[in-house]
Amino acid sequence: MVKLRLKRCGRKQRAVYRIVAIDVRSRREGRDLSKVGFYDPITNQTFLNLPAILDFLKKGAQPTRTVHDISKKAGIFTEFKS
């Protein structure tokens, strides 16, 4: 099973996260299938590759709670349902 989850990057006390598609059995910093976005919680910036995310969701990937919330703010699920 594939999940869309956050992968921590950046330095100490200045974390930024990549949104990646990754196998559920992999650890947080493990090898990812694809990088589909970027999230900076300090400046609250997000970059999402919408076609890639929609493709993984159509194939059955499950987003984690945090990725789901970030995606919902960006309006991905309105495009996914239509």
From TrEMBL:
Alphabetized PROSITE patterns for the sequence: RIBOSOMAL_S16
Organism: Arabidopsis lyrata subsp. lyrata (Lyre-leaved rock-cress)
Coiled coil: none
InterPro entries linked: Ribosomal_bS16 (IPR000307), Ribosomal_bS16_CS (IPR020592), Ribosomal_bS16_dom_sf (IPR023803)
The protein's name in its UniProt record: Small ribosomal subunit protein bS16c
Keyword Plastid: yes
Gene Ontology biological-process annotations: mitochondrial translation
Cellular component, GO annotation: chloroplast; mitochondrion; small ribosomal subunit
Ribosomal protein as UniProt keyword: yes
Keywords from the named record: Chloroplast, Plastid, Ribonucleoprotein, Ribosomal protein
Family of this protein: Belongs to the bacterial ribosomal protein bS16 family.
Tree of life domain: Eukaryota
Any Pfam family hit: Ribosomal_S16
Cellular location(s): Plastid, Chloroplast
One of the record's GO molecular function terms: structural constituent of ribosome
